[in-house]
Each structure stands twice: as C-alpha cells, then as structure tokens.
Backbone:
C-alpha cells in the first residue's frame, strides 16, 4: 500500500499545491489534503499557538492537527525564497519548528528548505528524498518535471480568473467549470495574500459577498510574473518579502490598466509585512484619488460586520460615479 503524506490545505497550498501533489503522487505517495478551514480547525489552531500569531498561522496549526493522525508523514516545507533578494516572512521560515514545538504526537515531518535562489538546495532535496523513499534519483527528477508542467497549467487557470480551489479541481479533472463570470458594473482589486483571500472561512466569504454586490474581482493571482515585470522596479526600494512585493506590483499593474473603481486590501491582524504594504497602498491610492478600504481579519471577524463595510464601500463608489 502507498504511504500517505498529509498536506495542510492552507498557506502555500493556494500557490503550489498542484506541484507538490503531482510530485509526491509520481514518486509513490498518496497525498491527503486537509479539508477546508472551519470553526473546528481554527479553534484547534488557536489552542496551540501564541496569542499574537497571525490568523493564517493559527489556521495552519489547525490543519496540521486535523491531519496528523490520518497520515504516515506530513509535508511542511520551509519556504525561504523563490528568487534572490527576497524572502518569505519569518513565520514561513520558522514553520516546521513552530509546528514541531507546538503540537505533540506528530508523525514524521518532511520539511525541505525551499530556496530556489540557491540551485543546489533543490538537488539536495531531491537526492535526500530519493534516499529516504528508495525511489531512484532519475524518477525523482522526472517527477519534478511532471509537477512543473501541471503547475504551469494551474497558473494559467488562475490567470483566467479561476479561484485556486476550482483551478485545482479542474486540473485533477474533478470539476467541469465554465469560464469565470465578469458581469458586474464595478471593477475592484482585492489584494492580499492568497491564503487570506481564498480561505472563505477566515476571509468571511469576502469574495462571494462582493460578487453578490455586482463587483468584478481582480486578485494578484490573475497577474503573471511576466505581466509584473515592468513594475518590479517601480518602487525606490522593494520589500524583502515575496508576497508583499507581488501585492504592490499587482496594484501598479491594475492601476495601469486604468479601469479600476476601487481597491480592497485584505490584511491579517498582527501581520508585520502588511503594516508597510497597507500604508504604502493607502498613500498611493489617496494621491490617485482611487477609493481604498483595508479589511483586517482575525479569528473574531464576522460576516455581518464585513458585509456592512463592503456594502458601504460599493455604494460609495457607485454614488461617486454619478458625479464624475
Ligand atoms: S506574511 Fe503576515 S499573514 Fe502571512 S504568515 Fe507572515 S505574518 Fe502571517
């Protein structure tokens, strides 16, 4: 029987799950994803984490708890960087250690360092895995290539406007969706980290609520690295953090497209990197006279409160239009 590997369905799940899913399936593992976040997951994560951790990290711990007794091992990579001069936030860097020290009774943890700026770190990971699993090095490399192809396809679906969950189902052949609808009268960029925006539990269904209000939503996953290229040097100095830079660069991309009616920044309470990103967006959009609303989420966020703010924001933009 195939060994099972647990993959918590949050954080880099939204960006890289197809790659890792294909990779592990190709070297003989059965991949088990945790279910979508719910109250139980969140409460379990809150119980084992420090109070001032951001909600995505609390949720991650909850997903690990949901998986730990159902799998032979867990995959908790340490995302360091995907390119030079950038890194992931300190919580990503310490993730495997945090999980190990906070949750008792864990199975074996596979925790490679993902540091694409350093070429040899990937080959070391592949050869270690080949040794550990008894799979040949050549097969591991073949699995990496296959995973790369699937990931490319996934990114293409995100560009077309599919949310990560639907795109994942599409590439697994589980879901037959039509094209994403764009029939609203307003275009609003909803910017923030994918694990906040696309986790409907912690974002209290923000995307769905906006759609119900007749809004066309634009997120940073809809902009490819190539499309971002012209904006990579737009700031006097980029941030250190991978996701923060992409939030800012996508903002400039959407601003340059010229059809934006407003911007919503979804940020997690106690997120260090976002403190700067949020202020930067506020100043830039004030200068351009484009409506801006930050929404800070934490474990106490409620759907009714967010709904009231979204309705007010959308009404204000429609009202403003009448006088332009
Ligand atoms: S970037 Fe912010 S929200 Fe994301 S894990 Fe780090 S502190 Fe949390």
Residues:
């Amino acid at each position: 029987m195939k060994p099972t590997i647990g993959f918590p369905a949050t954080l880099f799940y939204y960006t890289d799950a197809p790659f890792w899913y294909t990779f592990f399936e190709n070297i003989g593992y059965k991949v088990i994803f945790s279910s979508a976040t719910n109250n139980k997951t969140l409460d379990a994560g809150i119980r084992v984490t420090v109070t001032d951790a951001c909600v995505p990290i609390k949720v991650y711990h909850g997903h690990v708890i949901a998986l730990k007794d159902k799998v032979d091992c867990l995959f908790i990579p340490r995302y360091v960087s995907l390119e030079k001069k950038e890194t992931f936030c300190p919580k990503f860097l310490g993730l495997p250690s945090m999980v190990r020290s906070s949750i008792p009774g864990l199975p074996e943890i596979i925790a490679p360092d993902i540091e694409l700026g350093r070429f040899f770190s990937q080959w070391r990971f592949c050869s270690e895995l080949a040794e550990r699993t008894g799979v040949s090095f050549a097969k591991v490399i073949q699995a990496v290539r296959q995973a790369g192809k699937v990931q490319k396809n996934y990114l293409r679906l995100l560009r077309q406007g599919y949310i990560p969950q639907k795109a994942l189902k599409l590439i697994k052949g589980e879901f037959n969706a039509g094209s994403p609808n764009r029939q609203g009268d307003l275009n609003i960029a909803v910017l923030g980290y994918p694990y906040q925006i696309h986790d409907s539990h912690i974002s209290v269904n923000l995307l769905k609520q906006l759609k119900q209000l007749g809004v066309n939503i634009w997120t940073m996953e809809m902009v490819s690295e190539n499309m971002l290229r012209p904006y990579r040097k737009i700031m006097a100095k980029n941030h250190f953090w991978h996701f923060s830079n992409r939030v800012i660069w996508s903002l400039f991309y959407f601003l340059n497209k010229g059809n934006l009616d407003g911007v919503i920044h979804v940020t997690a309470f106690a997120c260090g990197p976002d403190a700067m990103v949020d202020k930067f967006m506020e100043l830039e959009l004030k200068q351009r006279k484009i409506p801006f609303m930050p929404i800070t989420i934490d474990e106490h966020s409620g759907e009714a409160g967010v709904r009231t703010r979204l309705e007010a924001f959308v009404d204000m933009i429609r009202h403003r239009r009448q006088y332009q």
User: Anything to note?
Assistant: The pocket of iron/sulfur cluster is lined by residues 54, 56-57, 89, 91, 193, 268, 271-274 (CB under 6 Å). DSSP finds 14 helices and ten strands in the chain. The mean pLDDT is 90. The beta strands are 4-7, 30-33, 73-75, 78-81, 108-110, 113-115, 186-191, 215-218, 262-268, 292-297.
